[in-house]
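We emphasize that the prediction below concerns an isolated chain of 360 residues; any contacts that depend on oligomerization or on bound cofactors are therefore not represented. The input was used exactly as deposited, without trimming of termini.
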Amino acid sequence: MTHHIITLPGDGIGPEIMAPTLALLSKLGEFEFEEHAFGGASIDAHGVALTDEVVEACRGADAVLLAAVGGPKWDTTDPQKPRPEQGLLGLRKGLGLYANLRPVKPLPALYDASPLRRERIEGTDLLVVRELTGGIYFGEKTRTATSASDVCSYTTEEIERIARTAFGAARSRVSSVDKANVLETSRLWRQVVSELHAREFPHIELEHVLVDNAAMQLVSAPRHFDVILTENMFGDILSDEAAMLTGSIGMLPSASLGGDIRSSDGSLGDGSPSTPGRHPGLFEPVHGSAPDIAGQGIANPLAMFLSAALMLRHGLGLESEAAAVESAVQRALDAGLRTVDLGGEAGTAQATRAVLENIA
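Result of the prediction step, given as a token string:
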């Protein structure tokens, strides 16, 4: 069976890490890749960060693989000008991808690469479940010469569906993160999560954690967390913080899913594909486009490889192929592979060779 994958290389180091990822995938199965301009590249070509044609192409694909977007070339404070990030928000909304899953599990080979002490991060294995299509990023926005506003809004339905995903993925505990001591949306969030827990998931422990406390605990006691459930903006910030537990933000993959997401054993979903043609998953590394190193051949491709592994598992239902990628990355690191961001000297090509040599 040939799988139809839309590829969005994007900007900065995006094309540099996308190309080796496609080479990696080609060693694992039959794939048909269809590339489209996205983000800043789309602004240059079409005047907008995301075209209707790209949205339709993604809807018809089996999965979407994204590298990175953004860069100083397109930075602007003018609300009338397009920004690359608008493409990312639009694609998530257009595909109905309401759940962003970011697993954080530092590999033993990289314990000493983390800015935190080995004994603090050892054994960490957590999942950030971030609501992706609501909140302040999608609320009404106003701007005048002297003021601006961004509305943060959530409905009971939006909170229930992301909470259900988090409880379904949990092994033992869900830490629901909010700011209920200040924000009305957080008070609704806490109420809805609590009611859903009592009604459908009483066997899972639930704790409510204020976002500032959660940020502190992530660096002081990361092993405490199993699943972190949170809204859009808090999840954006906390997941980037959590990335440093792995040694570098260049190591963290993510999956954005929609449709019917289920899990019965603590894994990210049940390994079945998204609803074809309606909710293809979007898989991307957490890091940005790193324009300061673009074109130098030193970008770390490992988060992109691991994002492809999430695509294989949760977008296409190819568990053994996903495990092969993850195992190859781990073996390469165990053998001493270190990219520049991990304190080593390996460039993109060397890192790619090291992983490809370990593909079983």
